[in-house]
Every structure is written in C-alpha cells, then in structure tokens.
Design brief:
Arc Repressor Mutant, subunit A, about 70% helix, elongated, single chain
C-alpha cells in the first residue's frame, strides 16, 4: 500500500536511506531523459510519492540530498526546481588547448552525435519532432536578427539528443556543450567573410538531420549528422 501521509516507511534508518538514494537516481534519470529540464518545477512531494511509491518522508530525504548536491533548488513559496545535473567535481574535464585537441574533439562528436541521431530516428516521438522543428525555427530567427545563434544551435543539438530517449547520449552530449560552444564560436569568427552563405549551408545540414530523423531513417540521419559535424570541423580549419 502506497504511503504518502508523511510517516516514515520503516524504522530502520539504513533501509530508509537506501530508498531515498533510489529516489534520487530515479529523479536524476527523469532529468536526463529531458522530462525535467533546467529551471523546471518538480512535481509536489505528494505527486513524487505517488509516482515512485514512497512515503513523503523518503521523498523529503531524496530532495534534501539533491539540494545538497546542487541538482535541485528550493524557492520559497513556489516549490523545488531543477537547477543542474550533478557533476563529478573530482574528475577533470578535458580542455580544448590546441589544434590537436579540436581534431580529437570532433572525432568524439562524430562517434556520439552520429549514434544519437541514428537512435533518435527509431525512438523519436511526434513531440520530439516538434521540439526539433521548434528549436530549428528559433535558430533561424536568431540568425535573421544577426545574433551569435550559439545558444539556439546548442538547443537544437540537445533536442536531437533527447529524441534518442537514451539517458547516456543525453548526458554525454549535455556535458559536452562547453567545448561545442567553443568550437561554434570559433567557426563563426572564422566564417564571417562568408556569413550569409555559411548560414544557408548550415541550415540545410540541420534540416537534413531533422527530416531524416522524422522519416525514421537511421542511415540518412547518421550520414546527415556525420556530414554536418565533418563540415563544422572544416569550417574551423579551412575557414569555410
């Protein structure tokens, strides 16, 4: 029987902590799947208790732990909100410090994002297709306004990752946004002499990826993403 009245589930503290840890992992998994995005309000304690079959006491413990790790933030009178995904502070992230690093980074992107696009072609829903098209439209508006468009471009790539419904792709690509941003900004700076032409080319590349995923073609989706990332690399090294 589901208990959500606020009473503890069991008198054994160790068991209760174990259950709260499980709830933490379930909430983080929901965040990674894109169900709970940054700055999005979490369900209430009662709703979480019903969702995970836990007591409100256990839910409070799980939320307390998520707050201590910086994943969730509490806003007075409003509730709990997703703040960020947990990061391993002890693990140093690789930095882009040389041309060789950039080359290796694009090799990494080919492996990960091509795979994500292929999986997305089979896993995507109508809502995912709509999200990708919405992100693409936002990118087009930013381009027309003369902005840098980096945030909008990153949002489109994340929409594609989320369409895979694979938390490992979503997490890996999400954690890689910093270097992706660096590469996009570098490509923009090098490409300004041909900005209008470059925008049209990149737009066509994005559309090819979205359409292939929408059509459910893993082969075309993977190839379209491969072409896009390889061309992005060339735009840095060849200034195109």
């Amino acid at each position: 029987m589901l208990e959500n009245s606020g009473r503890a589930e069991a008198p054994v503290q160790g068991d209760q902590l174990s259950r709260s840890e499980q709830i933490c992992k379930l909430i983080i998994a929901a965040i990674l799947r894109g169900e709970l995005a940054d700055n999005r309000k979490l369900p209430t304690e009662v709703e979480l208790a019903n969702r995970y079959g836990a007591s409100r006491t256990t839910i409070r413990e799980a939320l307390s732990r998520l707050r201590s790790e910086g994943v969730v933030v509490s806003r007075r009178g409003s509730g709990n909100y997703v703040q960020r995904l947990p990061m391993d502070e002890q693990q140093a992230r690789p930095q882009l410090g040389s041309i060789h690093d950039v080359e290796r980074y694009y090799a990494f992107r080919l492996c990960v994002e091509v795979g994500a696009a292929q999986i997305a072609s089979a896993a995507r829903t109508e809502a995912d297709i709509a999200a990708m098209r919405t992100a693409h439209q936002a990118l087009n508006r930013a381009q027309l306004s003369g902005g840098t468009c980096v945030d909008e471009d990153l949002a489109l790539h994340m929409a594609i990752a989320r369409a895979s419904h694979n938390p490992f792709f979503i997490s890996t690509i999400g954690n890689a946004l910093g270097p992706i941003r660096q590469c996009m900004e570098l490509a923009q700076n090098l490409g300004r002499p041909h900005a209008a032409e470059r925008i049209d080319i990149v737009d066509a590349e994005h559309l090819a990826i979205i359409q292939a995923i929408a059509d459910g073609s893993a082969e075309r989706a993977g190839e379209a993403m491969r072409i896009h990332i390889d061309n992005a690399r060339q735009r840095i090294f060849e200034g195109g």
